[in-house]
Structure formats: C-alpha cells, structure tokens
Write a sequence for this structure.
C-alpha cells in the first residue's frame, strides 16, 4: 500500500541527472528585451514556472530561482520552461495541449502548446514527483523516500481537443488546469492558463441556441413565420429552418457572439430542448428526403457553417444528435467545419454499450429507446463525420445523491467513443452530491486526457484517489464500490431513471422492499471506513460520501422499515432520517433533484422522497419529449 502524505508533511531529496534539483535554475523566455530588463514572458509560461517552483519547495523545502533566458549567464543545470531561446526540442507537432518533457545534456526541458506548457509542468509534478491533485482542496504526494530522476523523454498529445466537466467541484480554475480540463463553460481560464476551448455566447451558447439567437420575445409577434409550424400553428419554441429571414437573423446574431470572443473555437447551432421541429412544406420536404427530422436542422447548420467560415476559419460549428435530431440524415453530410455532438441520455450506463440490449426506464417507468438506438445513431453519424463530440450523462439527475455504480463502465465507454471518431467530450454533472462527485471528476478528467489508458492504469487512478482522499479506511470504500456494482449488475439504468425502476423490489408485509439487506451491507462498509480512518478530513469526506447509502435506502425503504418497526424502532428510523438531512446540509449537498434545491425540513417522519415534491410531480419536471 502506498503512503500518502500532505504536501509539506515530509521533506524529500529530489535528484535530477545525479544532481540535487535545488542546484538547478528554472529558466523562462525573456522575449526580445535587453539583457538588463525583466523578460516579457507570456503569462502562461510565468505561471508554469512558478507552479514548478512552488511544488519543488513544498516537497524539498528549498526554493529554486526563476531566471530569464535573456540574461547573460547560462547555467550548467537548467529546467527550461516554455519557449526558451536555447531550447533545442521542436514543438510544432504538439498543438495547443500537447507537451514534451525531455532531458537534454545536463538540463531538463518542459515545453508545449499554449496550454501544453502548463500541462507539461503539472504532469512532471504528478508523474515524476508523486503529487496527486485529488480535488480543488485535497492534494497529496506519494511518499516513497527520496526521488532519483535520470533520463526523461516524455511526449504526449491528447486525442480529444475539447474536454469539459460540469460538476460544481470541477469549476475551480486552478484545479481544472491541473486536471487538463480545457472547456470554458463553467470556468474562465484566461491568458495565464492558455485560455480554453469553449462555445461562443457564454452560458446561452453551450446548446439549444435557437432560443437566444432568434428570440421569440423580439420576433414572434410580428414575424411568426420565422418560427416552426407545429400541427398547423406557428410555435415560438422552434424555428423554421427554411425561412431565409430566420437564417439571416440567426447568422447575424451568431457573428456578434463570435466577434465578442477573444479566440473563438466553437459555436453551437442546435435545436431547442423540446420536440418542436418545423412542419412547413419546405422543411418537411427536406425531412422526407432525408428520412429524419435532423435533415432540416443539418441543412440549416451546413449553411451557417458556410456563412461564417471566411471570417472565422478556426471555428467549429457543432449541432446536437438529440431528441428529434438523433437519427442521421440519409444523404446530407456535415461540412468539414461541423461537428456532431451525440448525447448518451438514452443509453444504459451500467453495461457495455456494445453488449447491452435492454431499454432503460425513464420517467413513470416508461421504457426509453435504450442502448441499441444510441449505438445505431453514433455509428451512423461517425460514418459521415470525423469530428464527433460526446455529451455524456454520468449521474442520476433524478436523484443525484443516490448510489450510481458505473465506474466499471467508464473506461470501456470512453474507448468506444474514441473508436467512433470522438474528438471532444462534455460531461454533464450536477452540484455537490452525497455520492462520489470528487472521484467522478478525478477519473473522468484522466479518461478525457488519455482515453487509451490500460485497465491497470485506470484502476490504479481509482485506488490512488480513494487512498489519498479517504485515508486508511479507503479499502472499505473500494469494497463498497465493488459490492454495489455486483449487487446491481442486472439493473439497467441511465441518467434519467427513477430509483424505484433501478433497484429490484419485492412485497414484504404489504410494502415494497428494495434490497434492504444490500443497503445494510453498504452501511456496514462505510461504518468500517469511518472507524478505520484516523484524520479528521478523511473522516469528513467519508461521512459525506456515505450520504448516498442512507439517502437511497430511506428514499426507497423507509415506509417498509416503519411497517415492521416497534415504536422505539420507529423513533430510531426518524432519527436516522434526520441524520441524512443534517449530513446533506453540513456538507453543502443542497440539491434533492437536479433542478430542485434541498428545502427546509422539520418533520422527519416523512421519507426523503417526500421532502421536496413527491415522485409524480418530480417526474413531471422531465416528461418533455426533449429528453428522449
């Protein structure tokens, strides 16, 4: 078992090419100034050098000086960071995110693209110095005595050009950069982080852009013909794809978005989150020819891509394969500057995408399309488009604090995405949860950076996180993950499956009982983890993650437990129910449903499923055809 220490807890000696690393100087580029003036170094390279300096001091206790390459002195031992004049390593093939770490003579060079130079420094600190960036607030290093580094030749260029995670605990800018998340939807990466890859339009620009780019409150009253004809009436929540004025307004507003960006890279041209496609004769003719409602949308998207490419040659236009645009058109092909973003919301998340044949339950227990439909869609799109982006749903949005044992499937899914031309991925997360939100961010970041890691590497990342994040009790957390995976191996579910359709049940004492023995064992494992870990912070994190067990259990089983309980036992049940609520508030787990905050609760004779709004009403929040 590895020994994890807090940074600064132990001091070590680091030798680089047989010399103490503290005998080196960190060298950065001075950029065409005289020998006596400070260097005009890019902010991202300055940050990279300072981060390297900081972590070396935390590990060794000594401070390495940072100097500019325009100074007259050339040192015998240098760590050259970024575009240093005397660097000898070519970087033309690294793109924006790739890096190279290489020993040259007595020196070490760390270089890369505009973001890659920072990624190279953080990778050096992680891979060679043993530091692990577990979360925005928890960093550890693996102590194994002093470190000796000899020749290094390490080059990496990521497969995915766009990597974004929308968990609240991934919004921290510095942590995001350490995990090589380059998406800007939830974070402003800025110049010192090499900027990022994001969608023009800010929050409104990530998807469903028909709403903001042709606003109904501005145009619908006077020009209903701009909007979708649905069942014989113009509907303000969709657009007419064939109307030339709609197209003109859309492109004009889209260019305003793009011109407001410093270095725009992506823009979304995507239908609204409903089922309202245009049924006018012109739009319908396209759909009939293409045998898909995606026909009218892709025709529109291609025309938009043509309209902006001269002014914005580096911008990629993406559109969603989602809802009524899921099925690829029969004849139309995306333009070269168009990407198709395929959504996984209809797939089973508990089984291999290429093996699962069962549809998953959605709201009210109705069966959705299932994994086979998703497979058909992504393969059809990847056959005509070499730039597939993935919109992946990786929690239970109906109950984000519930047990969701999918870690065994994440690596296989990522490999499948890459095999089908994935060039980018957006993981839709939620706020702080009582599940494993920190572990999810950590492992999903690793997968997005290196989809081709081995299974051994993948599970080593998980083990290291568990040990560093939860302390000595981590082995029981690992047992819980394995136990819950095995206990739910026959369950088919996706991100929009209510709990009562995930867990099997039986009638006991006139009440539905959902695997009570399973939950008892899960609780035992968390209790052991809490008792075994010795540090307060580790215990706090175990307590937070234990919410998933009691919340899921009492959401499903509290009424059953009360039906067989004595009066004294009933009070114990109410007390445990209150403890779930108290733990959620203590650890800032403030959502009961994806879009519903945890309310004030005072009556703990009421089970968690009645704390906010009952199941029928909750399901009604998501019964729109858009989710399918």
């Amino acid at each position: 078992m590895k020994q994890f220490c807090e940074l600064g807890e132990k001091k070590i000696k680091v030798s680089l090419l047989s010399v103490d690393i503290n005998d080196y100087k960190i060298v950065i580029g001075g950029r065409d100034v005289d020998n006596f003036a400070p260097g005009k170094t890019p902010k991202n390279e300055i940050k990279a050098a300072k981060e390297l300096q900081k972590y070396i001091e935390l590990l060794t206790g000594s401070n390495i000086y940072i100097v500019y390459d325009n100074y007259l002195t050339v040192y015998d031992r240098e760590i050259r960071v970024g575009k240093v004049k005397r660097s000898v390593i070519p970087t033309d093939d690294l793109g924006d995110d790739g890096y190279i770490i290489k020993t040259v003579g007595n020196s070490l060079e760390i270089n890369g693209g505009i973001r890659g130079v920072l990624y190279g420094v953080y990778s050096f600190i992680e891979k060679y110095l043993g530091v692990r960036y577990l979360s925005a607030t928890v960093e550890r290093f693996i102590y194994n005595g002093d470190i000796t580094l000899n020749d290094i030749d390490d080059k990496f260029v990521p497969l995915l050009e766009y990597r974004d995670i929308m968990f609240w605990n991934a919004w921290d800018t510095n942590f995001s950069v350490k995990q090589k998340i380059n998406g800007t939807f939830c974070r402003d990466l800025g110049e010192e982080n090499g900027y990022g890859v994001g969608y023009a339009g800010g929050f409104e620009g990530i998807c469903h852009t028909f709403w903001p780019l042709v606003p109904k409150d501005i145009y619908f009253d006077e020009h209903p013909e701009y909007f979708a004809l649905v069942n014989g009436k113009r509907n303000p929540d969709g657009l007419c794809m064939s109307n030339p004025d709609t197209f003109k307004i859309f492109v004009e507003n889209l260019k305003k978005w793009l011109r407001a960006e410093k270095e725009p890279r992506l823009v979304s041209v995507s239908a609204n989150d409903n089922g309202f496609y245009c049924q006018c004769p012109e739009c319908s003719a396209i759909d009939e020819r293409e045998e898909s409602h995606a026909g009218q949308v892709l025709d529109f998207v291609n025309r938009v891509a043509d309209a902006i490419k001269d002014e914005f040659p580096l911008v990629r236009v993406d559109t969603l394969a989602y809802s009524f645009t899921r099925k690829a058109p029969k004849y139309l092909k995306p333009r070269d500057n168009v990407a198709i973003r395929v959504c996984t919301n209809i797939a089973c998340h508990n089984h291999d995408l290429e093996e699962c044949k069962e549809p998953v339950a959605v709201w009210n227990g109705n069966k959705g399309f299932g994994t086979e439909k998703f497979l058909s869609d992504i393969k059809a799109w990847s056959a005509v488009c070499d730039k597939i982006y993935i919109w992946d749903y990786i929690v239970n949005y109906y109950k984000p604090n519930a047990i969701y044992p999918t870690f065994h499937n994440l690596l296989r899914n990522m490999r499948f995405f890459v095999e089908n031309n994935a060039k980018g991925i957006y993981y839709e997360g939620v706020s702080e949860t009582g599940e494993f939100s920190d572990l999810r961010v950590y492992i999903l970041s690793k997968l997005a950076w290196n989809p081709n890691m081995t299974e051994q590497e993948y599970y080593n990342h998980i083990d290291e996180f568990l040990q560093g994040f939860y302390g000595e009790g981590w082995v029981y957390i690992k047992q819980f993950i394995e136990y819950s995976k095995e206990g739910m191996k026959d369950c088919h579910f996706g991100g929009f499956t209510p709990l009562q359709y995930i867990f099997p049940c039986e009638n006991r004492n006139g009440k539905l009982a959902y695997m009570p023995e399973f939950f008892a064992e899960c609780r035992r494992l968390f209790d052991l983890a809490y008792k075994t870990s010795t540090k307060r912070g580790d215990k706090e994190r175990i307590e937070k993650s234990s919410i998933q067990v009691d919340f899921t259990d009492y959401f499903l089983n509290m009424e059953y437990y009360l039906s067989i309980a004595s009066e004294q036992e009933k009070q114990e049940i109410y007390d445990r129910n209150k403890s779930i609520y108290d733990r959620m508030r203590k650890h800032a787990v403030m959502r009961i449903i994806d879009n519903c905050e945890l309310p004030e609760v005072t009556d703990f004779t009421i089970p968690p499923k009645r704390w906010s709004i009952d199941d029928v009403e909750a399901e009604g929040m998501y019964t729109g055809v858009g989710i399918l």
